[in-house]
Design goal:
The protein is of the alpha/beta class and 428 residues long. The protein has 2 domains: 130 residues, no CATH class; 261 residues, Rossmann fold (3-Layer(aba) Sandwich). The chain contains 17 helices and 8 strands. The protein is globular and about 55 Å long. The N terminus is likely disordered. It comes from Streptomyces noursei.
Length: 428
């Protein structure tokens, strides 16, 4: 067993390396970069202290155990690729409606690590399937539910919703450009076009054209994915009017993100909004050394990710680790490319395109990234929407409170299907 002296030496060495990596990258951003380097050095020192009592091997084994604790992110469907306007390949997967035993509430499929459902989870999923079967019936085309994920995440962030709806209704899950299994944005690599929310809206249109060429659609968006759904309506209002029969906007915002405080004191919030774009841009140019710094300070960032992802203190460690893995997978240069788009995002006027269809607006009350107040503002524009603000839940509410989110999503599909049926009857 490694003695305390050796553990301490390893900790200090790693701390110094991490601080040096972050500071070296940060110097490219001048004073702001120096601040990042100082913070990184302090953070690395904190990690070093923690490592005096918990060895690197033990922490690595703990992470591996958490990664193996659940089937999170293992569900796969029929894959496809849509081409964005700049040629970027956008990866998506389709889960079709099940037939045979699976259609009668059988076990959810999902790969070799899918694991067994608990009795409670199986009963809950079976109940949702029965509700959907009754709501959708056989008399008219059922809607396809299309999920758009948030910033620094991927389609697997919808794991629990995908498992709940799997086989009962057709679903599409896609990775936004430069995220997950989608390709890096061609326009961003070539430096010909910055990332904008409007660009993401056009990406969504490309995915819809490829994966859902016909039939009614229910759109579901979380955070940046919700903004993408708004951008679709802003640029393709006639398409939305013709095809979209329901919309869910989860943990998202229609604008004014430059005013979000992130739970920081007033001066800290102002400094963050002022300095963050330049710092991230500089760090993005030094991605190799920054990624080394991220790996070396993984313990610190696990704590930050948990704080800004979840509202409850007792969140399941395996779920917290899953959220951490999703965010860790996003390279720093991608983080930097997308960040400026949020400051200028404003799609309040575009929301009216969804006023004619059933809508769900849902947020965690403890969300520090897109505060619940932003969802209340959306609900004011969509007065007929169901507004749900979940106590003690944070930004990744669909992972933190999956049963509640699933129940409301099924309710939305029920309402959307009924409204679409009434509309078709009226036109007949």
């Amino acid at each position: 067993m490694t003695d305390g002296t050796e553990v301490a030496a390893q900790a200090v060495e790693t701390a110094a390396e991490a601080a040096g990596n972050w500071a070296k990258a940060g110097r490219q951003a001048g004073f702001a970069g120096l601040a990042i380097g100082v913070v990184a050095a302090g953070a690395a020192a904190g990690v070093a202290i923690e490592r005096l009592t918990v060895g690197r091997g033990m922490r690595r084994r703990a992470r591996l155990a958490l990664d193996a604790a659940g089937p999170y992110g293992t569900l796969r469907g029929t894959s496809g690729v849509a081409l964005a306007e700049d040629g970027t390949e956008l990866y998506y997967e389709v889960d079709e409606v099940a037939t045979g035993p699976a259609a009668k509430g059988g076990r959810a499929a999902g790969g070799s690590r899918a694991g067994k459902e608990t009795r409670a989870a199986h009963e809950a999923r079976t109940g949702l399937h029965k509700r959907l079967t009754a709501a959708l019936g056989r008399r008219s085309p059922a809607p396809t539910v299309v999920f758009s994920h948030g910033y620094c995440l991927g389609q697997d962030s919808w794991h629990f919703q995908r498992a709940a709806l799997r086989g009962a209704v057709r679903t599409v899950h896609w990775d936004q450009r430069s995220h997950g299994r989608s390709a890096r944005g061609h326009g961003q690599i070539e430096g010909t076009e910055p990332v904008t929310i409007d660009l993401l809206g056009r990406d969504l249109k490309a995915v819809l054209d490829a994966a859902v060429p016909e039939g009614p659609i229910v759109l579901v968006g979380h955070s940046m994915g919700g903004m993408t759904v708004m951008a679709l309506a802003d640029q393709f209002p006639e398409y939305v009017a013709e095809r979209v029969v329901g919309v869910a906007l989860i943990g998202t915002s229609a604008g004014r993100l430059s005013e979000v405080g992130f739970g920081l004191p007033s001066m800290g919030s102002k400094a963050f909004h002022l300095l963050a774009p330049g710092v991230l841009k500089a760090l993005g140019r030094q991605s190799e050394i920054v990624e080394r710094g991220r790996r070396a300070t993984a313990d610190l960032f696990a704590g930050l990710i948990k704080r800004y992802s979840f509202g409850a203190q007792d969140v399941d460690p395996a779920i917290a680790r899953f959220g951490e893995r999703l965010i860790e997978a996003t390279p720093i240069d991608v983080v930097a490319e997308f960040f400026p788009a949020f400051a200028v995002h404003d799609k309040t006027e575009a929301l009216v395109a969804y006023d004619a269809v059933p809508a769900l607006v849902l947020a965690g009350e403890k969300d520090l990234i897109t505060p619940a107040e932003h969802s209340r503002t959306i609900a004011e524009v969509l007065p007929d929407a169901e507004l749900v603000c979940v106590p003690d839940a944070g930004h990744l509410v669909m992972l933190e409170r999956p049963e509640l989110v699933n129940d409301h999503l099924v309710g939305l599909v029920e309402r959307a299907s009924a409204a679409a049926r009434r509309s078709r009857t009226a036109r007949a």
